């Protein structure tokens, strides 16, 4: 009897056995190069002894403590390690158990911050279409993937959205720089429509993850957003659940833009696939409001800051720093991007190959020149992903909707930072075969 309620009820899931470095092995003896790092999680690779040992040592001492009663050495150490890597001015870390909890916490901390500042009417969180922030009701409400929101629409909160900034498919049909960053100006327009007195925060993925696969904003975007947020006393919050802790070749994606946000959500790479953990990194200005106000954050989770999770996260960050893996992500990202452009760029359905660090997107179109997308039900990424899996390569199918929210297909590559060039060559060759297979099927 199969008792697991899988998300795909008609799929036969293979059973995983073990993982080592960039490879995972199923219990039928097949090995797979994991070019997705799970789903941008296993950034340091599988089976790192130092991390497993650190978790084991912690488990021998104590495995659970209620955060309202005690702190722990592991929790204090991990918070310091995160602050050491974070942009200047970030001062404290709120722990939770994953990405959705981290973004949900941002929503609640932003709301309480405004109350502490005696702005009790400010509660709305403005976010962007074609983004993903998690799967709870509040995080789906700020998320902008129509296909994932649709069924739950009756439950969703009124959270205003502005269009993505995506120069490849500009929502305004404009070009940079003559567009004068219309996509950033949209924030000010929506703040005015909604009433600045009702808006608590603006939330974005600084580099869009699986919904638009490694889409980077144009120069000046972040600076303009910061100005608008400051003008209306709105917190600027970023979701770095995918991008945080090295994925883009810098500790935080915001480091690329030289703009400091008020809060940062992190999760996937923090636990590195060893432990479920998430966190919100909070700027001192936000902390000050609580210190001068009630001194009480009215928000917590039972497993927040769990000692084993913190010991694991601490060992993951130590490994990243000791092995200089953030620089490696930058260096190997550039090499991988070149190999992908060289190996796939000529194929007639490959319309874009882009990336920053080891977060890479490959976009597909029916017509490479006009960039006319495939019909969504053609499921081009699903076909390529399946071919790759059947040929021992794991890649992540992005969510359809890259062009207009509904149509447009991209694949996400987000391998462990320890990937070698020979692995990249295998990935490029396999992807090429997979894409050619699709091309042949439509001829
Ligand atoms: C940008 C972003 N935010 C939030 C989340 C939600 O994280 P989790 O699945 O750990 O709840 C994800 C997960 O994919 C994500 O990519």
Describe the structure.
By secondary structure, this protein is an alpha/beta fold. The chain has two domains: 16-47 and 324-441, Aspartate Aminotransferase, domain 1, CATH 3.90.1150; 50-322, Aspartate Aminotransferase, domain 2, CATH 3.40.640. Helix content is 37%, strand content 16%. It has 14 helices and 15 strands. The protein has helices spanning 37-40, 49-61, 73-85, 99-116, 137-142, 146-149, 182-194, 221-231, 268-271, 284-292, 307-322, 325-344, 380-390, 421-441; strands at 16-20, 23-26, 31-34, 90-96, 124-128, 161-162, 199-204, 235-239, 263-266, 278-283, 350-356, 359-364, 393-394, 396-397, 409-413. The strands form three sheets. Strands 4-10-9-8-7-5-6 form a seven-stranded mixed beta sheet, with helices on both faces. It has a four-stranded mixed beta sheet with strand order 1-2-3-13. It has a four-stranded antiparallel beta sheet with strand order 11-12-15-14. A hairpin with a 2-residue loop joins strand 1 and strand 2. Helix 12 (325-344) packs parallel to helix 14 (421-441) and helix 13 (380-390) packs across helix 14 (421-441). It is globular, with a radius of gyration of 22 Å. Bound molecules: pyridoxal-5'-phosphate.
Summarize the structure.
The protein contains 14 helices and 15 strands. The protein has helices at 37-40, 49-61, 73-85, 99-116, 137-142, 146-149, 182-194, 221-231, 268-271, 284-292, 307-322, 325-344, 380-390, 421-441; strands at 16-20, 23-26, 31-34, 90-96, 124-128, 161-162, 199-204, 235-239, 263-266, 278-283, 350-356, 359-364, 393-394, 396-397, 409-413. It has a seven-stranded mixed β-sheet with strand order 4-10-9-8-7-5-6, with helices on both faces. It has a four-stranded mixed β-sheet with strand order 1-2-3-13. It has a four-stranded antiparallel β-sheet with strand order 11-12-15-14.
